[in-house]
Amino acid sequence: MPPRPPALWLREEVDAIVLALHVQPGAKRTEAAGTHGDALKIRLAAPPVDGKANAELVRFLADAFDVPQRQVTIVRGETSRQKTVRIHAPAARPDRDWSVAGPVA
């Protein structure tokens, strides 16, 4: 099997990874859901009010990458669906299994 091309939504740094995300608040469940343009799509089971969607995003990514929530930072897009998130020293790497071709759980 040929190697998978690098994901456009992922940038690896020395001690962190940076994700370009398109978030969809108000979904039935929180999950990674394939791609949206050059971004990874994340569905969030939280409404986009009072920071609830951002809190759910940070919780989901912290759980997925097996890090404390303080190691997940929304770098850009606090009030937008387009976000850039930095995850410092990820212990797990679920992004390597997240498909670029369709929905993933």
Structural description of this entry:
The structure is a single chain. The chain is mainly β. It has a domain at 18-90: YggU-like (Conserved Hypothetical Protein Mth637, Chain: A, 2-Layer Sandwich). The chain contains 1 helix and 6 strands, in the order E-E-E-E-H-E-E. Strands 1, 2, 3, 4, 5 and 6 form a 6-stranded mixed beta sheet that branches. Strand 1 (10-12) and strand 2 form a beta hairpin. The longest helix is centred in the middle third of the chain and has 13 residues, at 52-64.
Order of helices and strands: EEEEHEE
CATH class of one domain: Alpha Beta
The main pleated sheet reads as: 6 strands, mixed
CATH homologous superfamily of one domain?
A: YggU-like
Rg: 13 Å
Gap between N and C termini, in Å? 23 Å
Q: Structural class of the secondary elements?
A: mainly beta
Indicate the percent of residues in helices.
10-25%
CATH architecture of one domain: 2-Layer Sandwich
What's the average pLDDT? 89
Q: Which ranges are low-confidence, i.e. pLDDT below 50, for 5 or more consecutive residues?
A: 100-105
Topology:
Layout: E1 10-12, E2 16-25, E3 31-36, E4 39-44, H1 52-64, E5 72-76, E6 82-88
Parallel strand pairs: 2-4
Antiparallel strand pairs: 1-2, 2-6, 3-4, 5-6
